[in-house]
Amino acid sequence: MIATNKVKVASVDELTPLIGKKVRVKDHEIGIFLTANGEIHAVNNICPHKQGPLSEGTVSGDFIYCPLHDQKIDLKTGIVEEPDTGCVEVYKVEIIDRDVYICI
What we know:
By secondary structure, the chain is mostly beta strands. It has one domain (6-103): 3-layer Sandwich (Rieske Iron-sulfur Protein). Helix content is 0%, strand content 42%. The chain contains no helices and nine strands. The strands form two sheets. The chain has a six-stranded antiparallel sheet, with no helix packed on it. It starts with 5 loop residues before the first strand and ends with a strand. Keywords: 2Fe-2S, Iron, Iron-sulfur, Metal-binding, Nitrate assimilation, Oxidoreductase. Residues 7-102 form the Rieske domain. GO terms for molecular function: 2 iron, 2 sulfur cluster binding; metal ion binding; monooxygenase activity; nitrite reductase [NAD(P)H] activity; oxidoreductase activity, acting on paired donors, with incorporation or reduction of molecular oxygen.
């Protein structure tokens, strides 16, 4: 992943634990997730299997479950858990003065 631009997408206060937030950066639709342990992750918002909106899925630990068919995706790596296959792009997240930036 080569970051070419750092873009502010939200403030930490706008995020709700375990609830995804959809943002658009350039032509990318990105899901942002605040986990129960306070980590913030950003991944491509489109499930690789049925193109479901991941930001509407269920967060559990470091995983997001697609709302269309429950495919389990690791928020840290973007890899779909077996027995399913596939992956989504993961974006580096930086927090600066309580603002959330995505490197894209």
